[in-house]
Amino acid sequence: MKLSLGPIQYYWPRDEVLAFYDAVAQSPVDIVYLGEAVCSRRHEVRLSDWLDIAAVLREAGKEVVLSTQVLIESGADVTVLHKICANGTYLVEANDMGAVHCLEGKVPFVAGPHLNIYNLPTLQWMAALGLQRWVMPLEMGRDDLSLLLAGSPAGLQTEVFAYGRMPLAFSARCFTARHCNLPKDDCQFKCIEHPDGLLMRTRENEEFLVLNGIQTQSARVHNLLPELPAMQEMGVDVVRISPQSQHTQRIIDLFKSVMQGRADPATANTELLGLMVEKPCNGYWYGKPGLELVSPQAVAVPA
C-alpha cells in the first residue's frame, strides 16, 4: 500500500507553498497530487509553477499527479483544464466529467473523489475509458468499498481519502467573500488569511462547517489512521493525506510508520490527535453520520 498527498485545498502564499513542497520532496510520501483544485482566482502559484514543482518532486522519486479543478466556471478555466490534460508528462486526476472527456481514450487517468463512483457498472465503465486509479467518494463506507473491491477490474488501483478535512461541496458563490461582505469578483483574496479554512460554529458554539472560498468542508478532521491494517487486508492500494498548514510532514511520517509496521496504530494515533486542527471523525467509514467518531473495536470487521 502506498501513501499519497492530495492537492493543497487552501490558499497559501507562494513562498510557503514552495517551502512546503521542498519538505515533501524529502518525505516518505509516494504520490503527490499538485494543482489548484478549488478556485481559479488563486494565483499565488500558477500552472507553470506547479509544473516546476512537479519536476523537482519527480527528480526526488515521487509519482506526480496533476489535479484538475472541481468546478469549471469560465472559458479561462477550460483553457487551463485542456493544458493540464495535454501536459504529456504527468498523470492527471480528473475532478469533473469535463476532464474525463479530455482524457478518455487518450491517456490513463485518476478519478478524483468528486466523480460519484458508487457502483461496479460505473467503475467498469470508467475503466473502459482509461481509468488507472479511482479515489473512493468521501461518504462511502468500508462495506460498500469491499463490494467494489471484490468486483473491481483487474489492474485498477483504489485510493482512500484517509486524513484531513473533507471537501463536502462546491458552489459558484464564494462563501468566504460573502462572510467578509465582499462580492466574489472583488474577494480581495480573503482565503489567504485562513490557511486551514474559516471555521463556522453553531449558536451552541459547536464546530459546524469550514468555509474555504467556494468550497465547504467538514469542521472535524476525517482520520482513518487506525484503519490502515484493515485497509491493507481489504486490498486498498493507496491512502491519501490532505495537507494542512502545520505538521503535515509529521503526519506523513506517522502514517508511513504504521503502514510499514514500524509503529503501533493506537500509539501513532494518540500523537496524531495532538496535530489536528480540530477534533477527529470517521463516521462515513462505518456507515454512520460523517461527524461521528466510531471506535474500531466497537464495530465488527466485515468478512
Task: Reconstruct the topology from this structure.
Blueprint lengths: L1 E4 L8 H12 L5 E4 L12 H13 L3 E5 L7 H11 L5 E4 L2 H7 L5 E3 L8 H10 L1 E5 L6 H9 L6 E14 L4 H5 L18 E4 L5 E6 L2 E9 L4 H7 L3 E4 L6 H12 L5 H9 L6 E2 L22
Parallel strand pairs: 1-2, 1-11, 2-3, 3-4, 4-5, 5-6, 6-7, 7-11, 10-12
Antiparallel strand pairs: 7-10, 8-9, 9-10
What does this protein structure show overall?
- The mean pLDDT is 95.
- Helix 9 packs antiparallel against helix 10 (265-273).
- The chain is globular and about 50 Å long.
- Strands 1-2-3-4-5-6-7-11 form an 8-stranded parallel β-barrel, surrounded by 4 helices.
- It is of the alpha/beta class and 303 residues long.
- 31% of the residues lie in helices and 21% in strands.
Summary tags:
303 residues, globular, single chain, 8-stranded parallel barrel
Summarize the structure in short.
The protein has helices at about 15-25, 45-60, 75-85, 95-105, 120-130, 140-150, 175-180, 230-235, 250-260, 265-275, and strands spanning about 1-5, 30-35, 65, 90-95, 110, 130-135, 155-170, 200, 205-210, 215-225, 240, 280.
Tell how many strands the DSSP assignment holds: 12
Helix residue percentage: 25-40%
Structural class by SSE content? alpha/beta
Tell me about the largest β-sheet.
8 strands, parallel, barrel
Widest sheet, order of strands: 1-2-3-4-5-6-7-11
Point out poorly predicted stretches: none
Strand content: 15-25%
